[in-house]
Target: Peptide chain release factor 3
Amino acid sequence: MLDRASNQPELPPEIARRRTFAIISHPDAGKTTLTEKFLLYGGAIQMAGQVRAKGEARRTRSDFMQMEKDRGISVSASAMSFDFSNQGTDYRFNLVDTPGHSDFSEDTYRTLTAVDAAVMVIDGAKGVESQTQKLFEVCRLRDLPILTFCNKMDRESRDTFEIIDEIQENLAIDVTPASWPIGMGRDFLGCYDLIHDRLELMDRADRNKVAESIQINGLDDPELAKHVPEAELNKLLEEVEMARELLPTFDQQALLDGTMTPIWFGSAINSFGVQELMQGIAEYGPQPQPQKAEPRQISPEESKVCGFVFKVQANMDPKHRDRVAFVRLASGHFKRGMKLTHVRSKKPMAISNPVLFLASDRELAEEAWAGDIMGIPNHGQLRIGDTLTEGEMVRATGIPSFAPELLQTCRAGDPLKAKHLEKALMQFAEEGAAKVFKPAFGSGFIVGVVGALQFEVLASRIELEYGLPVRFEASQFTSARWVTGPKDKVDAFIAANKQHISHDNDGDVVFLTRLQWDIDRVARDYPDVTLSATKEMM
Ligand code: GDP
Model:
């Protein structure tokens, strides 16, 4: 194992062994398959000490689903924890899911504020696709360390150098091969592990079997020729020599800084390369990182608990109107039943029934450490961006809120159900799924989203969860701006612009317009009033 980056403080072992990450990918690249294999190895290696047979593999998965049923919520949709043992160390992996649909939502961005690293999955035949590129840009904003998995190597894929070049060029990040594929498509044999000098051979007969691993003493070891046919071996030697000449060598600090990504080649469906990737996350992936906050940064090794809400999911159980707030612990050691301070309201909250998303365990866990993700069921007190502490008035920052780019009017199919609609929309607004504005004049609600598909998702959720058919229609407005300033100036502004005024779900004043000209006019006529396209989450 390489030395830890020198600028990181020594963390308590329970925290140091945690790895909290998300998978970013374009739909169909293999995120779900890879997640399943993570769980398979996470549970299997720890419990059985060996790889499970196919039937048992299925059981691991269904245990997990049973847990969802027992708790009546869909846990796999949001976060899962599992253990991974590597060279005598037990790691705790926390995998936070990014929403799967191809449209972009704010949820995705916020999820990436709750992790310390991302695994980027690309399809070996398709390379860097649009959604990968977008998600990567979000990671880049936070200099998030990225580990890359090039999937589907069992199919005809692109030339290895071409794939690496494309990542380097499109994403402007250094790429260093952690493994090198031998053959491809039907002739894909496996990989040479460049970090550990091992030969990993794929077993096509058993998809859940861990690859055969053969220790090699460097590329001139005659042992290689016993396992790799001559033509493939020559190609491998030639390519690795070229790669070592042309591509940067692995540098852990560059990975942690987000300027270099190691790439593993594999086939998730054949369980190939997955373990090596997991070892990479364990050995080189970042430990829980400090969290930006006001008035001071929170460090994971601090003994007091601090956590922040990055996601709220309402109606996980349609029978209850409860929500689950997903909290990332930024510091400390949480124990069930603890009383924490809800910083926004300054009120104490007893956290008696937190959900910890353990994939291998059906019992609720009793504790959590910095780096972990907890679900806290609540009735709406917890909102995105909220901070929970042991009393200190500190507020996590950097949880983004986005300017709604598309506005539509939402009406209930049955006009008598307008009150129900209001309730449903407010709930989604609190969840962060949309911005909802109630115009001072006129009927209906104006809903603002970042991507067009969100309207459809909302319409179907309102129908499904509230039994309420709704219509979205074009709105006369195209832009929304939050209004702030001294109270008398804001009041004067509201009085003079009534037909443009609305309120969001927090009751804050929002100026709706369709013309940039209007916004410029306000800047000119009301110098003390500020119009902002986003609202800081607090
Ligand atoms: P997601 O949309 O990124 O979650 O992708 P999925 O995990 O659902 O995979 C998309 C499709 O690719 C599915 O049909 C998988 O069976 C298939 N798939 C996943 N991994 C591999 C692989 O390594 N090789 C091949 N040939 N197919 C794969």
Q: What stands out?
A: Confidence is low (pLDDT under 50) at residues 1-6, 44-76. The chain has three domains: 13-284, 293-396, 403-536. The first strand starts at residue 18 and ends at 25.
